[in-house]
Structure formats: structure tokens, C-alpha cells
Design goal:
single chain, about 350 residues, 2 domains, 8-stranded mixed beta sheet, 4-stranded mixed beta sheet
């Protein structure tokens, strides 16, 4: 790897809940704007990969983003990296290839401990870390914020199954930066009503205080309210709060930050830009090669006759409001290396 390679991390968005609700729209647009023209977004199914309907869970996020980001002409793909040891594994490069050229990676709801177990030391995690080092943005919502923390809280195991209070190792996505975080979504949850305290991601304040007692003392706890996002901006060295609620940081003392406010990244703990030796070299090289190839494709002559015909058929389906057929043809075009930019009176084709 070239020693002149510069680390320029992208943003990391942590969302307390509501990735498909209007309250999260500003955070999604924040990342779309940061990604430049025609952003390419991939959605990893992994956190919900144990669920029979994981494709539907991720598909609903895609449908929301298709609508919300239509003015950005985004290309959005779902990657079914569901379970290790299967063909749809987060270690299978064939499943993960779109990550190499994506501008951002999104992971949403599911099980925090399942996400951590499937992603810890996986190819998917290394590609996320390498991509983030090179400027790609990461969008983590609900279970994913917990699963990619240094320590993850076994929400379902405690809240639903009655296991004793304990923590498990998370996938530790931000480890190369020196952070030691436990990020808790659903911080202000009220699903239990007046009868049951379900704040602190369904633990309630009393149980959560006991969990804090068994958490290593050098861990910073970050509580994110529902419908609220925390954006980590490594270039500016600051965090920004978006959405409807607040972000609570439990470090040496408790700090609560309202929506619209910003605070220093140092409030989350001592951090540093990773050393070149800490970067996943093989994954960095894969991403660089893929981006170089993408740039080369952009300079080739033009789309093949097959691509032109598919694009014409898609426009006809779209004009007839046959959205399912239009989406199917769009996916075929993406597989051939082209995306469609729709306009009021027609469309344009450009390489992915």
C-alpha cells in the first residue's frame, strides 16, 4: 500500500430509531448531500438476517429512500449479507461487491447481538472500515448502533427472555479511532406507558443503572433519543444532533445536547486518526481498484444496444406507471453497470 495514502474519514450517522420515518429524512439528506451527485447507497441486511422477512425489512428502507432521495437521483441497493457460513454471508465478496464503489453504507433494525456476532472480524466490517477511512459515509440505525459499539447490550435476551444483566462484545466499528463507546438507541422510549419504564432501550432507568455498574469505567455511553440522529464529522472534529430529541453523553459527567446543537468529538472520548498500519490493507486495495475501474468505465464510449433497449423499455414502463416493471428493468441496468437519471421529459444513462 502506498505510504502517501491519506485517511479522510466520511461521516458516521447514528440514529436512535425511525429510519423510515419523516423525522429521519434530514439525516438521510445530510448524507446524500455529502456524497455528491447521484449518490450510491447500499443497505446491509445483516442485523435482521435471522428474521425470515429480513429482505422485506431492508426493502422497506430502500422504498423509503427511493422516495425521500428521488431529487438526488440516488442509486440504492440491498445486499443480503445475512448469516456467516451460508452463501449469503457477510464474508462473501460476491454479495458485498457493491460496497466497493458505494458512497454510503446503511444498516438498520434487527438484533444488536446478532449483528455483532455476524459482523465482528467479518469482511463486511473490514470493507466498512476501509471505505469509511477513504471517505465513504456510514448510516447506523437502532440495533446497528448498539451492535457496532465496543460493548453491546443484549436487549432481547434481557428484556424478552429474562437473562441476567450483562454486556456482550460488539463489532467495535470505531475501534481504529480509539473510541470506547456503548451507543444506546431508543434512549427515551415510552412503549411501556405508565406501567413499565422502557427508556434506555427497553431496560428502564433502574436496570440500566445496574448495567452501568458492570460496564468498564473507561467506556463512554451515548444515549440517542428516538427519531434523533448523531452525526460524527471527523474532518471538523465535531458532532451534530439532528431530529426531534436529544443526545445524552455519559462520560466523566452527564451532558445533554439538543437537536440542532453541535459539540466536540472529544466529548465522546480521546480519539485519533488511525495509523496507516491499522488500516485493512487488502480491503483498501480492493476499494481503490474498484473506484479506478469505475472511473475508467465512465470514459468509455457509450451504453451497448442492450442497455439502450432496456432503458427505453424502462421509460415506457415508467410512463405507463408500471412501477414494478420499471424497478425490475432499473435493477437489470444497474447489474450491467448503468444507472438511469430520470428527468421531466426523458432520461439519461451514466455508468454506475
Amino acid at each position: 500500500m502506498e505510504t502517501s495514502l491519506k485517511i479522510s474519514p466520511g461521516h458516521v450517522v447514528m440514529l436512535g430509531s425511525g429510519e423510515t420515518l419523516p423525522s429521519s429524512g434530514k439525516a438521510h439528506e445530510y448524507i446524500a448531500q455529502a456524497s455528491g451527485e447521484n449518490p450510491h447507497i447500499v443497505i446491509l441486511e445483516t442485523p435482521a438476517g435471522f428474521e425470515p422477512n429480513s429482505a422485506t425489512v431492508a426493502g422497506k428502507i430502500k422504498e423509503f429512500l427511493d422516495r425521500r432521495l428521488q431529487n438526488y437521483k440516488a442509486t440504492i441497493e440491498v445486499l443480503p449479507a445475512r448469516k456467516r457460513g451460508t452463501p449469503l454471508s457477510p464474508d462473501n465478496l460476491d454479495v458485498l461487491t457493491p460496497m466497493l464503489t458505494a458512497d454510503s453504507v446503511l444498516m438498520g433494525p434487527g438484533s444488536p447481538t446478532y449483528a455483532a456476532r455476524q459482523l465482528r472480524h467479518s469482511l463486511a466490517l473490514r470493507l466498512m472500515q476501509a471505505g469509511h477511512f477513504l471517505g465513504k459515509h456510514m448510516f447506523l440505525s437502532s440495533a446497528s448502533t448498539l451492535g457496532l459499539s465496543r460493548f453491546t447490550m443484549p436487549v432481547y435476551e434481557i428484556y424478552k427472555s429474562g437473562e441476567d444483566l450483562h454486556w456482550k462484545d460488539g463489532a467495535d466499528f470505531l475501534r481504529p479511532f480509539g473510541f470506547n463507546l456503548a451507543v444506546i438507541p431508543h434512549w427515551n422510549n415510552t412503549d411501556g406507558g405508565a406501567e413499565l419504564d422502557t427508556s434506555r432501550c427497553y431496560m428502564g432507568e433502574a436496570r440500566f443503572e445496574k448495567l452501568l455498574e458492570i460496564l468498564p469505567g473507561d467506556v463512554t455511553v451515548v444515549g440517542i433519543d428516538e427519531h434523533t440522529s448523531l452525526v460524527l464529522d471527523f474532518k471538523l472534529g465535531q458532532c451534530k444532533v439532528l431530529g426531534n430529541g436529544t443526545v445524552t453523553v455519559l462520560g466523566d459527567n452527564e451532558q445533554v445536547y439538543a437537536t440542532g446543537s453541535s459539540f466536540a468529538l472529544d466529548e465522546l472520548g480521546v480519539w485519533k486518526l488511525p495509523d496507516i498500519a491499522e488500516m485493512p490493507a487488502a480491503e483498501i486495495e480492493m476499494i481503490q481498484d474498484a473506484m479506478t475501474e469505475k472511473a475508467k468505465r465512465a470514459t468509455v464510449a457509450g451504453p451497448s444496444e442492450e442497455v439502450v433497449a432496456l432503458a427505453a423499455s424502462r421509460w415506457a414502463a415508467r410512463s405507463a406507471r408500471d412501477w414494478a416493471k420499471a424497478d425490475e428493468l432499473r435493477d437489470q441496468l444497474q447489474a450491467l453497470g448503468w444507472k438511469v437519471l430520470d428527468g421531466k421529459d426523458g432520461y439519461e444513462l451514466e455508468p454506475n
